[in-house]
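Private note to self, pasted from the team thread so I don't lose it. Backbone tokens:
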């Protein structure tokens, strides 16, 4: 499991120009089962993605497809973790 923290390095005007493409990318990754949750940071200086990928290498390839990455609009920090406790609703995230 991974937490991906995006930090914008471009103006919000530049971000907004690519936002629809970024949303399409997110939807594709949700459909593929790679992303579990995502949203904007507050204040709006980036975003966060909760991802479940087969490996860090696979996740890196997935993140290369993000229009924000391809257009050099954001920096990415990836934190890998193993959930050891969840709410009942999220128990499927626990590794068996």
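Design output:
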């Amino acid at each position: 499991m991974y937490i991906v923290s995006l930090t914008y390095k471009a103006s919000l005007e530049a971000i907004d120009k690519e936002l629809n493409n970024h949303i399409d990318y997110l939807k594709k990754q949700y459909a593929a089962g790679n992303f579990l949750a995502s949203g904007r940071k507050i204040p709006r200086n980036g975003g966060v993605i909760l991802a479940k990928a087969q490996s860090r290498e696979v996740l890196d390839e997935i993140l290369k497809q993000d229009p924000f990455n391809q257009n050099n609009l954001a920096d990415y920090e990836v934190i890998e973790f193993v959930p050891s406790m969840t709410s009942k609703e999220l128990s499927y995230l626990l590794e068996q």
